[in-house]
Amino acid sequence: MDGVTAIIPNWNGRVLLARLLASLGRQRVPFAEILVVDNGSEDGSEAEAAARGARVLRMGANAGFSRAVNRGVEAASSRWVAVLNNDVVLAEDWLERMLEAARDPDVWFLTGKLLAERERRVVDGTFDVLCRGGCAWRMGHHRPDGADWSHPQRIAFAPLTAALLRRELFARVGGLDETFETFMEDVEFGLRCALAGYPGLYVPAAVAHHAGGATHGGWHPERVRRIARNQLLLVAKHYPPSYLRRSAWAVFVAQLLWGLLAFRHGAGRAYLRGKWEALRRFGSLRAQAARTDERRLRQVLEDSERRLRAAQQRTGPDWYWRLYFALT
């Protein structure tokens, strides 16, 4: 099937879902199909989606974001899929702008500019970067919108908050890692794409507004637990033994500083639970890491850190990244 299939994971988000579906209906270039993958909602989400013309895939229980996306990709038959959080609202030309940029045959996935819904002159995020320590940052997060975030560029990591991807990409590199459930699953997927040589594109003209934190926002303990766990799982899965030895200090610093942030926000116990869960699984993932191209991994992470450092210098550094770069 030609066109684009929208894949929307949803769990008890009827009000948010209705707003997103309305924005999909206003697109200048329409979606070929809209799939709402429902994780066992009990708030009328399924009826809302069906009433607005979406096809509903019922998971029966909250299976997590990663599994919901994978199920949606399996059910899609279009060349392209758009993965959308239920708490975004797309500008009317979002898909049109994305497809214009997607004419480049070397581009495998795209993401646009996310603006904060409550402060529309503030960037919620653009694309992700990943440091050697296994922690990620969404470029532009909480920065004023402006020229710094308005230039198209090749990227390695696309937030799956609102992204367009070739469906074939999932066949080539595999689906989202379902052990990650939610949070950093898109960073891990992006790292696999980068290691395999499939680049993406940042399209600032494609704008979406993001409410953020609709399920587990801010420093909610469940969010902190999963991020803390997945940071280490990513390292375990992709850092070969020799690279891990060389990067051990950076990993220690990045994880410790993030832990200090978690404790500062009252989520220290959740942080420790997440790290403990990751350490229990760490050894079982090391066989996969041995297959990683270390030279390519080093290139990807060094480029990512250069972008991160440059953005922090241009727009004012967060204390976390100031300390990370000072110590590593």
Features:
45% helix; alpha/beta; 328 residues; single chain
The end-to-end span amounts to 49 Å
The string of secondary-structure elements, in order, is EHEHEHEEHEEEEEEEHHEHHHHHH
Average residue pLDDT: 95
Alpha carbon gyration radius: 19 Å
Task: Please identify the structural class as seen in this structure.
Answer: alpha/beta
Beta-strand residue fraction:
15-25%
Form type = globular
Largest sheet: 11 strands, mixed
- The total count of helices amounts to 12
- As a percent range, the share of helical residues equals 40-55%
| Total count of strands | 13
- The poorly predicted ranges are none
Fold and architecture overview:
The protein has 328 residues and is an alpha/beta fold. The chain has a domain at 221-327. Helices cover 45% and strands 20% of the residues. It contains twelve helices and 13 strands. Strands 1, 2, 3, 4, 5, 6, 7, 10, 11, 12 and 13 form an eleven-stranded mixed beta sheet that branches. Helix 1 (14-25) runs parallel beside helix 2 (45-51), helix 8 packs antiparallel against helix 9 and helix 8 (241-264) runs antiparallel to helix 12. It is globular. The model has no long low-confidence stretch (mean pLDDT 95).
